[in-house]
Fold this protein.
Amino acid sequence: MRKLQFIAVMLVCVAMLVACGAPATPQVITKEVVVTKEVQVPAPAVPTVEGPFEIAVIVKTGNSSFWQNVQTGSFDAAKELKAQTPKLSVTFLGAQSESNVNEEINIVESAIDRGVKAIVLAPSDVKALQPAVKKAKDANIPVIIIDSKLDGDPSQYTAFLATDNKAAGEACAKTMIDLLTKAGKTEGKIQVMSYVKGVGSEIGRVGGFTDYIKANSKFTLLETQYSNADMPTALNQTTNVLSANPDLVGIFGANEPTAVGMGRAIAQAKLGGKIVAIGFDGNSALAGFVKDGTLQAIAVQSSYGMGYKGVKTAYDAAMGKKVEAYVDTGFLMVTKDNIDSQDAKNVLY
């Protein structure tokens, strides 16, 4: 409630007569009177949301620690936003595997059909998810892309939040070259163990790695292997690569399940520390491989940040607020030297 003050000035004129009937000069007395009046002023209106308010978080698969950490970030953001919007709900769904693209498409279309307010999407294919994203836009549902950028017209989605995968791939290649050079090796074979061919993050990450190796060294890249983000497949593939190439000097595992399978194969072959091995992502198994020397480094994204910032951005977009078109969620190169640092603890999961 605000108090408004009104000032009333009253002028009182008194004529004084003096003796002998002669007129006296009038004396003016000024008196200030303050009148206080209370006026009701309405409080500023607070935006409210009526009815259900669902944000659907749809990822490539729920079957990995990386995506489960995205889920943790998503749900933490939801807890904070419920204070503003009590009827808010965040659902989290993913396909059975990263290679099951049609299943992810069906999940997106189901979310559109039930009228969600916004979608946070990690697309498993850079082209196949385009029609579903367009369908969401036509239904006035903002889509926030995380992790892997879609091909085509970026105006079809509202924002993109991800690691700069090309820069991360280049950093992994530079680290590998530096470690090999320190070991006195400037030539030899390097193997790339990748996951799903054609995924946006894979194109940037593996492309950044291989392009940097070709441009900045004399090392020979063997034909890339694809595990379809399946750990047992990656283990078997790496075992075969190690057996067929006893002169291998370096190996790169480009995502969590692939890098875990790669690390287990190296450990089983008792080659830890004998070849330079670098992984991507940062679950407890990969952190353990860094600590025991099986892997020399892992590039770790902030998967928690993708989920947390993704939901916050989706909420703002659904409420009609302007959001940033691109947010780089960053990565950290974790080695035995810094794995116990606070920075590493903030991204490992």
About this structure: The longest strand covers residues 2-14. The chain has three domains: 2-39, 53-163+303-329, 165-301.
